[in-house]
Design goal:
about 240 residues; Maf protein; 7 helices; 6 strands; about 20% strand; binds inosinic acid
Amino acid sequence: MTNDRGQKEGGSDGAANHLCCLSSIVHRHVSGRLVIATHNPGKLAEMRELLAPYGIDAISAGELSLKEPEETGMTFAANARIKAQAAANSTGQPAFADDSGLAVDALDGAPGIYSARWAGPDKNFSRAMETIEQNLFERGAGTPQQRKAHFVSALCVAWPDGHLEEFEACVDGTLVWPPRGDNGFGYDPMFLPDGQTRTFGEMGSEEKHGLPPRGKGLSHRARAFLKLAEACLDRP
Ligand code: IMP
């Protein structure tokens, strides 16, 4: 797993550089066709957009009529692995999955891996945001400091032979009420990333992801994706 700590370990001392080189040798390159193991149209659009500059031919689990596996993992990384492995095994091709969600400090990390479920079977995120707001109200979390939250994204590329590439990243922010903006999906209108004046719901996708050459990665998914790109993709 490549995480923030792991990246910083590739510093200037000799041993760390040596480890860094070794780990880049064992990463497996992604090229050609990649199955995107999601049935979430919002995520699919974002993943396609992220992969487009790298010449990846992305086809979605929905387009291939793949069954959605049960997400039985207890972490984002475990659930990303379940989805990527299920798609790789049933298609015989490398598959890419994201598991992500919103973790709210004052709610002990909820909704976390259950972020999609809080929207119910009809995927009503207005109601899910109201549920979060109600919970924050009940806990007396009124100030921005008490309303800290993080979006987390775990990415996994799985191959049919069992090889895995896994990356994780997050973005810190504050929850605002009422929600602001109609862009993006899920909890975007409630999430104000640190250092920004607009919620993800008020940003276009270019601004939300903040990708190079103009940015260094803003959204959780873009940050995790940049780690994956660095390790496994051809430069655009
Ligand atoms: P899953 O990863 O498909 O299990 O679901 C993750 C859920 O977390 C989504 O349905 C959204 O509700 C929420 N989520 C994940 N990433 C984002 C994001 O970038 N913006 C808004 N909501 C998100």
